Structure formats: structure tokens, C-alpha cells
From TrEMBL, chain A:
Domain of life: Bacteria
Keywords, comma-separated and alphabetical: Signal, Transport
UniProt similarity note: Belongs to the bacterial solute-binding protein 1 family.
Keyword Transferase tagged: no
Species per Swiss-Prot/TrEMBL record: Salibaculum griseiflavum
Name this protein carries in UniProt: Sugar-binding protein
TrEMBL record, chain B:
Record field: transmembrane: 12-37, 137-158, 170-190, 222-243, 279-298, 327-347
InterPro entries: ABC_transporter_permease, MetI-like, MetI-like_sf
One GO cellular component, as annotated: plasma membrane
Any GO BP annotation: transmembrane transport
The family this protein is said to belong to: Belongs to the binding-protein-dependent transport system permease family.
Keyword hit for Cell membrane: yes
Protein name: Sugar ABC transporter permease
UniProt xrefs under CDD domains: TM_PBP2
Principal location listed in the UniProt entry: membrane
Topology with respect to the bilayer: Multi-pass membrane protein
Species the sequence originates in: Salibaculum griseiflavum
UniProt keyword terms in alphabetical order: Cell membrane, Membrane, Transmembrane, Transmembrane helix, Transport
Domain ABC transmembrane type-1: 133-348
């Protein structure tokens, strides 16, 4: 409520300043075309915002998620970007660096108490703010844990790498599952770096060296990364996990149907799993392979495009949209993790005792954003290919070396990406 | 002919203008753009200024070297062998990542062969592109004759006056009308490694004796699977071209052959085939060019995997130019592809010339 009055005050003060001018239109692009629930919630926020003040009218245009980034790149190349841009967290530095986005003049106050991973910062400035985050957990059934005699890991005391492999071995030996572990190889694209690079980080490696962001040498092909690569390959060669040719339908339903004992999956799949009849599903934290347990972070966020003449209007809209009730509405509607604790308390699933409450803890406790660099977009592609190749049996050291060379060549070709 | 053309130039050129204009705008101009971009370091997205880099992009794609590896020896100088009796060599990365050999920096093993005790390793600065090149050539070499031949057989079969022959024509032509993306998606299900249609079918006719094969997930079968599916998809198109060629052959020739007592084979060999000469040249060149442009099937079905066994030149051009935001790299691949297709088409043209 406090924020609402503040936005109201701000709105009225600008109203006095600009006099009785007509409303300025702010166009907006969104990635959620085809999702009715999502569109309705966003439509509701925009309607409320347009009614709550008289300076700006926001009008939205939705794109399918699969082609959204391409649309923005094409829009930028032809000089046709909207004012308000919807941007995926890890992509933001690339767009900020290339001038598609400008800093968002939002007050620190408005984002106080928000999950760190929902605020997109680049070069010391805030460029984008999100209403939610996503988190990944190790799905399993309580019945499976009991039957295999496994300890339930907690945030404070997660499984070690050995415990995790022992659990997979036990599940495999039980003979009750097609595969012990489903990492989700059917979900090609951003899922690979988002879901699998945290394992690498837990081993002590990374996609790039985050101290300089100028090279991947040592981070992606150092000792820790080699160890990670061998472990990753063993998942497939020793038959713990289905490979890259996994049927997408099995990815979506395999765990529910009992084909897999453990599934590495995001919070967005939790509601479907519960509705699918897995009443005793438990969401376990990521295992710790030696360098602390980590999961990926950073989801879709809002920011101002580089060509927008009214970043203040964009900031006003974003501040308005950041009200807890909207965060809660998005969370209830499409199962995302609300950005604040207050909003979490208002939701059905993330409130204390809610079915998905563990995810909020995971986001707070284990989340590590993907490398904050304009080069991430390319590095992510290279990493994806390396993961697929290693899973398919390629030599670990050669594959990681090749990935390092490609990432380094790209960083050099872009003169260091402005770090 | 020529005089008529020169007399009615005004109207003629006016009618041709939209076509010429569109071809120039969308094919000729972009080609010169691509050639220009391939000499720069242009990125898709970048605030950095574009610079002229000469032929560096071509060097990055095409550089090859051969290095010689001496076997590992123990203290007594004997060659070390592993459990299988294979000679152990130092890893290639000890050379390519060593500061002693800066000329091999960033290169990677493509393939190797062994002569006596030393191994020779061909290293390439872009192994993925080399594999894409080989895969594409393989694809063309298999698809062009097989697809052309099958299409000819189908055309001969349906070039008969039988009741209901149009139904067969429609059936064979159907896959051509369906979008290649849809066809690729369907074949992904057909090729599914667990319970795909193909595996089920094979297991049914062998009474369960068939071991399911992960057609698209196995590097040995992936490219072959895509070849088979591509041949099936476009065979109907070329069937129609053959058919039109068949129907230009005068029936009187067949009648004459019949009177002479020619066998079916002789009729085909000495009447049909010579009559199809120009059609054959057209079909061959069209299939070759289409096969070089292999992209959608790869994009939908395998993404170039597993282990680069289905990488192709056009897929690499798109992946690089758009996916990895390296427009100059993608342009370079396009120019190389253009030169390749041009060369092969000219050779085909020369081989099939009127003697």
C-alpha cells in the first residue's frame, strides 16, 4: 500500500509539473503471447496503471517466448523498439552494452527487500527489475526417499556429491525406474546453462572467469571443470540419465509417470506435478559438490529501451507493477516465485506452509546469477553445445578446451565487451 | 526471335521489372553485402565500430595443419602401450595449448592416422565447420542420385493410363506440399528411440527380434536418418518434373519402337532416356542446390548433434550469424557455400553439355 500512495504522489506531482497535458503513450513488448493467464494479469496491471495516473498510457504487444529475443534484435536493428522492454535476466547486460536499453531511473526504495536476483544491474546501474524469480530443485517422492533409505537433505545440510551419486546408484539398483535421474536434456536452449552451469559452479568452475570476464581459460577447463565434465559424462555413460535424444514428452511427464526417481526441474513445473497426482513430491536443494550448492537465478524483467524518450515514465510503470498484490497475482497465476517476502506471504503456494514454499528458500539461499556480461549470450550457446557433446561421449578435456577457445575468441572479437 | 524481342523491349522490360527488381533486392544485393561483411568483423549487436579485417574470417574457418605425434616412451625408450595394446601418444592439447607453438593456438584435432609408430594428426581451426562441410557433401552425394533415381521410377510408374492413377500422383506429391518444419517434427516422432513408429514397425515385422535404435541420438545413424527423410519428402516434387519431361516425348516414337519389336528396357534406354536429357540436367542441378541448402530438418530434428554428426554448412551459417551474433562469420560461410555450389553446378553443366 505504501508503494501505491508513493506512486500516486509521484503521479500527481508530475501532473502539476507538466500541467494538463495529454497522456503520453508508452509502448511495451512482452514475451508471454499464447499464455492467457499471464496476459490477463499483465493486462490488469496496465489497466490499473492507466487509470491510476494521467501522464502515461501503456499499450502492450505480446510475442511468443521462442521468438521474442529475435524480435527485439530485429526491432533494434531497424530502429523500432518499444519504450518498455521485457528482458530475460542474463540477456540484459548484452542489450544494455549494445545500447538497446538505458538505465532505469527507479528509486532504491522501490526495490528494497526484493530478491537480489530480480534486480538487473550492469556497470553499476539498474537496468531492469523483475516481479518474480524462478528456481530449480531436485524433485523426488518422499516414498522414493523412504524406500531407498535416503536422508532428506536440507538447505543447511544438503547432500554431498557422494551422497547424491549414492542416491542415484540406489535408485538404479532398485530396478524400479527407467532412469535414476532426469536432468532435462530434451529442453535445449537456455535450460542447459541455466540448469547445468550451477553444477559446474558447485565443483568450483564457471562458464567464464568472473574476476575479469575476459577469459574462460581456467574456469571452464581447469581442474574443477574437468572433474565436473567427467562426472557429467558418467551420468550418461553409466546409465543414470537419459541423453540428448530424450523425448520432450518424457521430460514433461516422465517423473509424474514414475519413469525417473529424481528430476532436476524448475518451480514452474511444480503445480503440474502436484496436479498430476504426485502428492508426496518433495523439492530437495541442489547437492554440494565441494564448492557450495548453487542453482541458477534471474528471470524475465522490465526495463527501458535505449531509444525511449520517457525513461521516467517506464520507471513509474515498473514501480507501480512492483506492488505486492501484483507479484502475488503473477505467482498464483503462473507459479513463479514472488520477488518479496511480503508478496510470498500473500500467495497460495509460497506462503509459509504452502506447497512450493521450499523454492523461496532455494532462491534466497542457493541462487547465483549467470555471468553478468554482454558475452553471456554467446558463452551460453557454447556451453550448451559442450554439455550436449560431453553427454554424447566426446572427450571431456578437448571439448572444454574447444569451448574455452570459442568463448575467448568471441570476447576478443568484441574488444572485451566493455568490462 | 531476337528482332521481336528488341522491338517490344519497352513492354517486355516493364513486365520483367518486378521480378528482376525483387531478385536484385533480395538475392543479388544481399550476396554483395555478405561478401563485403565477410571481410570485416561485423557483429549482429555491438556498439563497437566495424573494422576491415581482410581474409581473417576465411583463415579462421579454413586453416588446417598436420602435426606429428611421437609415442610416449618409458625410461628405457620402449613405446608405452595401453591395456588394449594401442600406442599411447601425448594429448594434442599439450601442443595446441602450449606457448611453444603459438601457430597452433586454438586449433583442434579433426582426424588422425598412424604410420609406423608415429601418429599424424590433422588439426583444424574450426573442426565443426570442417565436419559440416563433409556432412553436407555426403548428403549431396547420397541424396542427388537416390532422390533423382527414385523420382524417375515413380514418374515412370505413374505415367500410365490406369484408373485412379491421380490418387497415386496426389499421394506421392503430398509431402511436398506440407511444410518441411511439420514434416521434420513428425519424423522426429517416427525416429524416436524408445517407442517411435519406425522401431515399433521393425519390431513387429521381426516378431520382437529388433533392438530399438535411437535413430537421431546415435552419431552413426543420425545423418542417414535425415537423408532418408529428406529423400522421401522432396521425391514427389522431382517426380512431377520427370513426369512433365516424359509427357513431352512424342507417342509416335514409342509406337515406332513397338513396331520395331523393342523390349521395355530398350524402349527406355533408346527412346525415353534420350528424350529426358534436358529434364535430367535440370533435376540434377535443382536437387544438388537444394541438398546444399539443408537446414530446416537439422534445426528441428538434431540441432547439428549428436557429436556434430549432422552439422551442415547452412546450419552453421545461421547458428554463427544469428545464434552467436557473428554476422561476419556467418557471411563468410555463405560466401564459401556460394563458391562451392557454383563450382559444382559448373562442373555438372560441363559434364552434361551437348556433345
Amino acid at each position: 500500500m505504501k508503494r501505491l500512495t508513493k506512486a500516486g504522489l509521484l503521479a500527481s506531482s508530475t501532473l502539476i509539473a507538466t500541467g494538463a497535458m495529454a497522456q503520453t503513450e508508452l509502448s511495451m513488448w512482452y514475451h508471454g503471447a499464447g499464455n492467457e493467464v499471464e496476459s490477463n494479469i499483465l493486462g490488469g496491471i496496465i489497466e490499473d496503471f492507466n487509470a491510476a495516473q494521467s501522464d502515461w498510457t501503456v499499450s502492450v504487444e505480446s510475442f511468443p517466448q521462442g521468438s521474442y529475443n529475435d524480435s527485439v534484435v530485429a526491432g533494434a536493428l531497424s530502429g523500432n523498439l518499444p519504450c518498455i522492454l521485457d528482458v530475460d535476466g542474463p540477456v540484459m547486460p548484452n542489450w544494455a552494452w549494445s545500447g538497446y536499453m538505458q538505465p532505469l531511473p527507479i528509486s532504491e526504495e522501490a526495490i528494497a527487500g526484493h530478491l537480489d536476483s530480480t534486480v538487473g544491474r550492469w556497470d553499476g546501474e539498474i537496468y531492469s527489475v523483475g516481479l518474480w524469480d524462478a528456481a530449480v530443485a531436485l524433485y523426488t517422492r518422499q516414498a522414493t526417499l523412504d524406500a531407498l533409505g535416503l536422508r532428506t537433505p536440507t538447505l543447511d545440510n544438503p547432500w554431498t556429491g557422494e551422497e547424491f551419486m549414492a542416491a542415484l546408484e540406489a535408485a538404479k539398483a532398485s530396478g524400479e525406474f527407467e532412469y535414476a535421474f532426469d536432468p532435462g536434456m530434451a529442453w535445449t536452449g537456455e535450460w542447459y546453462p541455466y540448469a547445468f552451469s550451477p553444477f559446474l559452479q558447485s565443483f568450483g568452475g564457471d562458464i567464464v572467469d568472473r574476476s575479469t570476464y575476459q577469459t574462460a581459460e581456467g574456469a571452464l577447463n581447469g581442474e574443477a571443470a574437468m572433474e565436473f565434465g567427467e562426472w557429467w559424462q558418467s551420468l550418461f555413460t553409466e546409465g543414470y540419465a537419459p541423453g540428448t535424444s530424450q523425448d520432450p514428452a518424457d521430460r514433461d511427464n516422465g517423473f509424474i509417470e514414475g519413469k525417473y526417481a529424481f528430476s532436476w526441474n524448475g518451480n514452474w513445473a511444480a503445480v503440474a506435478t502436484l496436479e498430476g497426482g504426485v502428492d508426496d513430491v518433495v523439492f530437495l536443494p541442489a547437492p554440494d559438490f565441494g564448492n557450495g550448492p548453487t542453482i541458477g537465478a534471474g528471470s524475465w524483467q522490465f526495463g527501458a529501451s535505449g531509444t525511449c524518450e520517457h525513461p521516467d515514465g517506464v520507471a513509474e510503470f515498473v514501480e507501480f507493477a512492483l506492488q505486492d498484490k501484483y507479484l502475488a497475482a503473477f505467482s498464483d497465476g503462473i507459479g513463479l516465485i514472488p520477488a518479496t517476502e511480503e508478496a510470498a506471504a500473500m500467495t497460495e503456494n509460497y506462503a509459509p506452509g504452502g506447497a512450493l514454499e521450499p523454492f523461496f528458500g532455494l532462491s534466497e539461499g542457493q541462487a547465483l546469477v549467470r555471468p553478468v556480461s554482454p558475452g553471456y549470450v554467446v558463452a551460453a550457446k557454447v556451453f550448451e553445445k559442450a554439455m550436449a557433446d560431453i553427454a554424447n561421449g566426446a572427450d571431456v578435456a578437448d571439448t572444454l578446451d574447444a569451448a574455452v577457445d570459442e568463448i575467448d575468441a568471441d570476447i576478443e572479437a568484441n574488444s572485451g565487451y566493455g568490462h | 526471335m531476337a528482332s521481336k524481342l528488341t522491338r517490344s523491349t519497352g513492354a517486355g522490360w516493364a513486365f520483367a521489372l518486378p521480378g528482376f527488381g525483387l531478385i536484385a533486392l533480395f538475392i543479388i544485393v544481399p550476396f554483395f553485402f555478405a561478401f563485403g561483411l565477410s571481410l570485416t568483423n561485423q557483429r549482429l549487436i555491438s556498439p563497437n565500430p566495424t573494422e576491415y579485417v581482410g581474409f581473417e574470417n576465411y583463415r579462421d574457418l579454413l586453416s588446417l595443419s598436420v602435426i606429428t605425434l611421437e609415442p610416449e616412451r618409458d625410461d628405457s625408450g620402449a613405446v608405452i602401450r595401453d591395456e588394449d595394446g594401442e600406442i599411447e601418444y601425448p594429448r594434442v592439447r599439450t601442443i595446441t595449448r602450449s606457448d611453444d607453438f603459438p601457430q597452433y593456438r586454438g586449433m583442434r584435432e579433426w582426424f588422425r592416422w598412424q604410420s609406423a609408430e608415429t601418429a599424424r594428426v590433422v588439426i583444424a581451426s574450426d573442426v565443426v565447420f570442417m565436419k559440416a562441410l563433409v556432412n553436407t557433401l555426403m548428403f549431396v552425394l547420397v541424396v542427388a542420385p537416390v532422390q533423382g533415381g527414385l523420382a524417375l521410377i515413380l514418374a515412370l510408374l505413374i505415367n500410365q493410363k490406369l484408373r485412379g492413377i491421380n490418387i497415386y500422383r496426389a499421394i506421392y506429391f503430398m509431402p511436398v506440399v506440407v511444410s518441411i518444419v511439420v514434416v521434420s517434427l513428425l519424423w522426429r516422432f517416427i525416429y524416436d528411440g524408445n517407442d517411435g513408429l519406425l522401431n515399433n514397425l521393425l519390431s513387429a515385422i521381426t516378431f520382437g527380434g529388433w533392438q530399438p535404435v535411437d535413430w537421431l541420438g546415435n552419431p552413426d545413424t543420425a545423418l542417414g536418418s535425415i537423408m532418408a527423410m529428406s529423400i522421401w519428402q522432396a521425391v514427389g516434387f522431382h517426380m512431377v518434373i520427370w513426369l512433365s519431361g516424359l509427357q513431352t516425348i512424342s507417342p509416335t516414337l514409342y509406337e515406332a519402337a513397338e513396331i520395331e519389336g523393342a523390349s521395355k528396357w530398350q524402349t527406355f534406354r533408346y527412346v525415353t532416356w534420350p528424350g529426358l536429357r534436358n529434364t535430367a540436367v535440370l533435376v540434377l542441378i535443382v536437387i544438388t542446390m537444394q541438398a546444399f541448402a539443408l537446414f530446416a530438418q537439422i534445426d528441428v530434428m538434431t540441432n547439428g548433434g549428436p557429436l556434430d554428426s549432422t552439422q551442415t554448412v547452412v546450419f552453421q551459417a545461421v547458428e554463427r550469424g544469428y545464434g552467436k551474433q557473428d554476422i561476419s562469420g556467418g557471411s563468410t560461410i555463405s560466401v564459401i557455400l556460394f563458391l562451392l555450389v557454383l563450382t559444382i553446378s559448373l562442373i555438372q553443366r560441363w559434364l552434361t553439355r551437348e556433345k
